[in-house]
Decarboxylating 6-phosphogluconate dehydrogenase
Amino acid sequence: MVSLGLVGLGRMGFNMRERLRAAGHTVVGYDRNAEVSDVASLEELVGQLDGPRIVWVMVPAGDPTRQTVLELAELLGEGDLLIDGGNSKFTDDKRNAEILAGHGVGYLDVGVSGGVWGKENGYGLMVGGAASDVEKAMPIFDALRPDGPREEGFSHAGDVGAGHYAKMVHNGIEYGLMQAFAEGFELLEAAKVVNDVPAVIKGWQRGTVVRSWLLDLLVRALDEDPELDDLEGYVEDSGEGRWTLEEAINNAVPAPVISAALFARFASRQQDSAAMRAVAALRNQFGGHAVRKVGG
């Protein structure tokens, strides 16, 4: 069993702490929310860990992660290990690793998938970093990953940055899959010949080539709200889809499905699209097609 510090006890971090403790590991958690935190500061967290110390960071990407890494670099020492399990951009990992190396601290970047269901089902883990550091953290990874063969829920993707790169591509694929299910749902809703859309989608869960966990989650949502009328069609993106497209461009890899899914999210945030107003105007100009006037 290992002693682990866990920084960031939000939706995923909180459940990860519970899953690790259930596996017998000692976990000291820190969060700015005192109601869920085990300690009052990062300094206190590090002080409670046995050496060599391992600290797993689960805070928002960007400045929050950078500041946390800088602070922990001053608190950790030779032979310790820091793991960034948030959704950091892979280009940040080399810089973090270099800062920590100056203090004799190892670094792993871990893409984590599983959402709020990870506590029960386990988390898919994609790891970047040195093999020796991966081996040091393997008891933690084995506790977090799903039950079954290790290779089905865990991968050592490569050197520093590879874990977050793999998670970025994973999330880009996720965008496309969700968009495909969403468009299928809308088409079924629009069809006059289909009387029970939730029943059709639920029927896809067994024996079909589109069965998946995402499909199961869509069925769950439809069980709660058969026409999804309680929701607004406004969808944010957390960054990974954009980064995936940047990498597709940098590597000249066609990614039309992922790009269309990302742009569909952008479209969902427009109350009134200037682009579509222009399309309506053009159709009216060249073909005399009817347009809807504001207030008409």
User: Anything to note?
Assistant: The chain has a mean pLDDT of 94. The chain has two domains: 3-159, 168-271. Strands lie at 3-7, 26-30, 54-57, 81-84, 106-113, 124-128, 154-158.
